[in-house]
Structure formats: structure tokens, C-alpha cells
Amino acid sequence: MSLGANLFPLCEDMTPEVMAKVDGIIESHRGKPGCLIPVLEQCQGVTGYLPVELQEYIAMGLNIPASTVYGVVTFYSFFSMTPKGRHTIKVCMGTACYVRGIGEVLNRIRSEFKLEVGNVSPDRRFSLESVRCLGACGLAPVIMVGSDTHGGVTPERIIEILNRYE
Ligand code: FES
Q: Quick one: 93 and 158 in the same domain?
């Protein structure tokens, strides 16, 4: 049985099936120099994020200190220690968007989806980020959902737009 099954009660996302894949990734890299970042990338590709418990498991599997794994995960913004939503909403808080009312749009998103900036909605549908400028100021106020850009958004339209994303 995979040792990773022991993580299941700690992290409900780390099912035995997920941990079997993690074991395979660790196994194929163990002992190879410079393997930590590729292992973390591949594991995050499977699990979606790298909670501390999983970092400790990877450290044990690669026989390196957990503090080394933690240092790498927290250094690179590519790695996440918290779950991500299925869709990432980027709300532009740059000047052009701000003066054209993005604040009200953001408030509507927060209340409708019980979602705060930097967090994920309870149903894991959306992650919410605020950014400085999305480079589409002529369309202000602007949000992005995944790779889709939506301009001229209003508190009324935003819910209809977001409900296109399951
Ligand atoms: S300020 Fe929002 S796109 Fe530039």
C-alpha cells in the first residue's frame, strides 16, 4: 500500500489514487541531482497544490530536509500551498478600471460567490486575484477569467458572465 494513503485523513484531496501518482513521480526521480523542482511541478500537476503535509511526504521520499522543500515552494510563485479554483478570476484594480467602477464589480463577486481576494470559493469553482493592469485599459473596467478577457463589466453583468464558467 502507498505510504501516501496515510495522508488521506489530513488532506482530503490526497486520495489513495492521487498518492499512487505522487509515489510514482518520487520513485522516478529519487537520487537524481536537481530533481526537487521537477518533482514539485509534477506533483502539483496531479494534486493542484502543495500543502505542508504533502511537502513533508515528498521530502521523506526524496530523503531531503522538509525545510528545503518548503523553501522552494514558498520561493517560486508558480507553486501554491492552497487549492486553486477551477477558474481564476483576475480583477484589474489599475487606475483606469478603478475610476470606471471595478470596486463595485469586485464587491458583487465577493458577495455572490462568498469569495475574497487571494482565496478560493467554497465550491472550488473560482479563485480570485486582484492585479494592477491587464493591459486593456481601453476596455475598462476589465476582468479576466482564465485566458478570457471581459471588458466593460458592470455589477449587473458580472454574475451573468461568471455563470458561463462551471
Ligand atoms: S487599468 Fe485595468 S486594464 Fe489597465
A: yes
Which protein residue's CA is at the shortest distance from atom 1 of ligand 1?
Answer: 94
What lines the ligand 1 site, CB under 6 Å?
Answer: 92, 94-97, 133-137, 140, 142
Could you give the count of Cα atoms lying within 13 Å of 147 in the half-sphere of its Cβ?
0
pTM above 0.85, yes or no: no
pLDDT tens-digit readout, 15-35 = 899 999 999 999 999 999 999
Ligand 1 mean position, distance from CA 144 (Å): 11
- What is the CA(41)–ligand 1 centre distance, in A? 31
Last residue of a domain, one of 20, 46, 75: 75
79: helix, strand or coil: coil
